[in-house]
């Protein structure tokens, strides 16, 4: 079944079978029989600020007993004011009315909410596609059958062998491994989410080999970020400059070798752009960096909204989203960043794709979310060149003022 939403440039169409989401022009919307939209009264057909996000990351609970050291939500105890079943359904109504397409449910651990199935079924009933990220704790064949309600279920696995418990607690790999077997046996669309940091980077090839033995088709790689408990260990755990430089070609090679799709989250897009792929190709396959506050929003289990799950909450509530998104300046600092981008982003060919990298990382490392992502290899090299130029100018100055003997 094809779903659609009007936008000024035309619209967004989505399908689950086959799975896709595409931005299309006005003529294509007409050909699909969608009719006309008041949004088309404006002659502007550029793709900029959307009427609503296409995807929302909804941490439906902060409760989690796994205790992972890198948890970006600082999962454990419930959030103060965590939404009950009725309130969570009202929140999903808001997202459905805005014509959001996908809701990525996480936490915390969804299955530590006793109403998890009711919530997922309700999302479906109002036209939202729920997806899930989970540790796999407590999975049974009976539960796996119920998980077919989700469009996709990804199990968190950060490595195998010596890399399996770099971030996650003892025994978590065994739990995830069993969960994958149960999901695959049940015919659930399944993949792996892998958080990549300094200490498990070398284990990426083994993870591809493992995924092949499970006959999985997809691994999504997420960058270790300074959010939640990750703030306390970021300098120890973040990927290095050399790792960031080599990530994209490594994933491309392994993906081709094992015939497994390797996806990266938006914060790794600077590392992809570093290898200078054709801009038009990236645009054609809808590659984008930071789209916080536009394509994407994050919502905590108490209903507080943020540009994405790795940024501080804006202070607004999910129940106020129609009004918030209707305001001219909503999330403006994020959505207008390219207009005031400093160097080296200002001169970068990938400015409008990457959008400065991860602004959560920038805020943590520099105190200013408006700065370019300091871990982007382009930015690292730009700063090194500036520092070298300063040193060289200082040396020249010193030579010119040396006393004559």
UniProtKB/TrEMBL annotation:
CDD domains to which the protein is assigned, alphabetical:
Radical_SAM (cd01335)
Q: Which UniProt keywords apply?
A: 4Fe-4S, Iron, Iron-sulfur, Metal-binding, S-adenosyl-L-methionine
Q: Which domain of life is it from?
A: Bacteria
Q: Which GO terms describe its molecular function?
A: 4 iron, 4 sulfur cluster binding; catalytic activity; metal ion binding
The protein's required cofactor(s) are namely:
[4Fe-4S] cluster
Per UniProt, residues of the Radical SAM core domain are: 50-261
Recorded hits in PANTHER family, A to Z, give: PQQA PEPTIDE CYCLASE, RADICAL SAM DOMAIN PROTEIN
Report what the protein is called: Radical SAM domain protein
Organism encoding this protein: Vecturithrix granuli
| Top-level taxonomy | Bacteria, Candidatus Moduliflexota, Candidatus Vecturitrichia, Candidatus Vecturitrichales, Candidatus Vecturitrichaceae
């Amino acid at each position: 079944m094809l779903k659609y939403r009007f936008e000024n440039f035309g619209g967004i169409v989505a399908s689950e079978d086959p799975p896709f989401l595409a931005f299309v022009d006005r003529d294509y919307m007409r050909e699909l029989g969608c009719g006309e939209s008041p949004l088309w009264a404006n002659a502007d057909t550029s793709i900029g600020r959307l009427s609503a996000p296409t995807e929302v990351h909804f941490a439906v609970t902060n409760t989690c007993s796994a205790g992972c050291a890198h948890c970006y939500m600082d999962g454990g105890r419930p959030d103060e004011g965590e939404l009950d079943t009725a309130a969570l359904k009202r929140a999903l109504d808001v997202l459905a009315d805005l014509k959001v397409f996908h809701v990525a449910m996480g936490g915390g651990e969804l299955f530590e909410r006793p109403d998890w199935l009711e919530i997922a079924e309700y999302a479906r009933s109002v036209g939202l596609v729920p997806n899930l990220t989970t540790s796999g704790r407590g999975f049974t064949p009976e539960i796996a059958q119920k998980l077919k309600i989700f469009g996709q279920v990804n199990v968190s696995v950060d490595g195998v062998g010596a890399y399996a418990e770099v971030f996650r607690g003892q025994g978590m790999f065994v739990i995830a491994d069993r969960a994958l077997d149960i999901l695959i046996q049940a015919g659930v669309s399944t993949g792996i989410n892998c958080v990549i940091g300094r200490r498990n980077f070398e284990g990426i090839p083994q993870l591809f080999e493992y995924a092949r033995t499970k006959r999985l088709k997809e691994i999504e790689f997420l960058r270790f970020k300074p959010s939640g408990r990750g703030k306390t260990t970021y300098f120890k755990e973040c990927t290095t400059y050399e790792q960031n430089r080599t990530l994209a070609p490594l994933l491309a090679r392994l993906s081709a070798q094992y015939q497994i799709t390797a996806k990266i989250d938006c914060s790794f897009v600077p590392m992809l752009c570093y290898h200078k792929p054709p801009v038009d190709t990236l645009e054609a396959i809808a590659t984008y960096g930071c789209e916080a506050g536009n394509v994407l929003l994050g919502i905590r289990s108490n209903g507080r909204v943020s540009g994405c799950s790795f940024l501080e909450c804006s202070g607004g509530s999910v129940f106020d989203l129609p009004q918030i998104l209707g305001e001219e300046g909503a999330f403006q600092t994020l959505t207008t960043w390219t207009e005031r981008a400093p160097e080296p982003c200002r001169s970068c060919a990938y400015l409008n794709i990457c959008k400065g990298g991860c602004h959560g990382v920038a805020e943590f490392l520099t105190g200013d979310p408006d700065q370019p992502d300091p871990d982007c290899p382009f930015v690292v090299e730009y700063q090194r060149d500036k520092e070298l130029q300063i040193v060289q100018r200082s040396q020249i100055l010193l030579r010119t003022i040396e006393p004559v003997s």
